[in-house]
Amino acid sequence: MSSTAQVPPPLLPPASAPRSTGSPVAGFLIDLGLAASILFGLSLIAGLGWGLYRGLMVGMEAAAPGGQAPDPDNLATLLGQPGPLAQILMALVATGGAALILYFWRRRASTAERESSHRALKAPSTWGWTLLVATLVIIGSNGIAFLARQAGVEPVPTNLDLMSRAVDQFPVFLMLFAVLLAPAYEELLFRRVLFGRLLQADRPALGMLLSSLAFALVHEIPGTSANGPLEIAQLWLIYGGMGAAFCWLYQRTGTLWAPIAAHALNNAVALGVLMVFGIPQ
Fold first, then answer.
1. Which helix (H) or strand (E) holds 40?
2. For residues 69 and 60, what is the distance between their CA atoms, to the nearest angstrom?
3. Which residue ranges does the record assign to the CAAX prenyl protease 2/Lysostaphin resistance protein A-like domain (predicted)?
4. What is the CA radius of gyration of the chain?
5. Is the pLDDT of residue 74 over 90?
6. DSSP summary character for residue 224
7. I need a labelling partner for 56 at 20 to 30 A (CA). Which of 162, 188, 258, 272 fits?
8. What is the distance between the alpha carbons of residues 11 and 37, in angstroms, rounded to a whole number?
């Protein structure tokens, strides 16, 4: 695809700019470690917040007229487990919070980068590439799943049960989360912060590899589902390929809005299929 509008690459520093003497790979690993630590910490805080909320509800019910003091042995049963809405909100706080903290702390865009990104938004080629990449990601993901199914490999994504329950109970909020919020904070973290560091250091291939591996791992962590090694490998291939495609789109267009839009289109199609057809049996 081509356009008469020429968009200069905004992600690489000017030739006259002094390059950092530190290792970009070390910087990437520091960013990754910080992201994991912040995500874990915010997950704990969100979990504690939910626990305090449920404890308050249980206490208010016990204090109401006719209420009974909760049995300490059954306290865990009374508190229960977070429902789909609570789990989605906790994920939003943890992952979204980690993305924002890392962006403002470690990889905040300069004025020149923002201006260049705005120019890229006006280029017709930006949206042509976005639509092409989103289409190829959807076709590629479903193609991999189809071929794996023929070989008897049928993984169940870790978040599928959560999504199916949220579709039934909170469809509007789920659409807002999956199509708008999740693509924005995931692209901010994995493409702008992680991939962007190595891209700025003229190491795009390495950045694409490492950030895509991280993207795949965070979406399917071994031991968190009943998937075996082959099923996990298939999901990693799909998520890793998706991450690499969005990295390439970010580099090609020069604006983070392009992979955010492609990611949103992919999620919208997947969510639409889930809403219409449900979980395949």
1. helix 24-63
2. 10
3. 170-269
4. 21
5. no
6. S
7. 162
8. 26
Hey, how many other C-beta atoms are within 10 angstroms of the C-beta on 194? 28
pLDDT of residue 274: 85
Neighbours of 263 (CB within 10 A): 27
Looking at this protein, which amino acid is placed at residue 6? Q
Residue with tokens 């520091």: 30
Please say if the pLDDT value at position 13 is more than 60. no
How far is Cα 116 from Cα 79, in angstroms, rounded to an integer? 50
Identity of residue 136: L
What is the average per-residue pLDDT within 13-40? 77
115/94 Cα distance (integer angstroms): 29
For 156-218, strand residue ranges (E) read none
Token pair of 254 as six digits: 């020069």
HSE of 77, CA atoms in CB hemisphere, 13 A: 5
What predicted TM-score, i.e. pTM, was given to this entire model?
A: 0.86
Ramachandran quadrant class, 214 (left: phi over 0; alpha: psi -120 to 50; beta: rest): alpha
Tokens of 153: 């490999």
Query: 142: which residues sit within 8 A by CB, 6+ positions away?
Result: none
> Which whole-number Å values give the CA distances from 110 to 9, 63, 247, in the listed order?
14, 55, 20
pLDDT at 2 over 60: no
* Owner of token pair 């965070």: 218
Is the model's pLDDT at 21 over the cut of 60? no
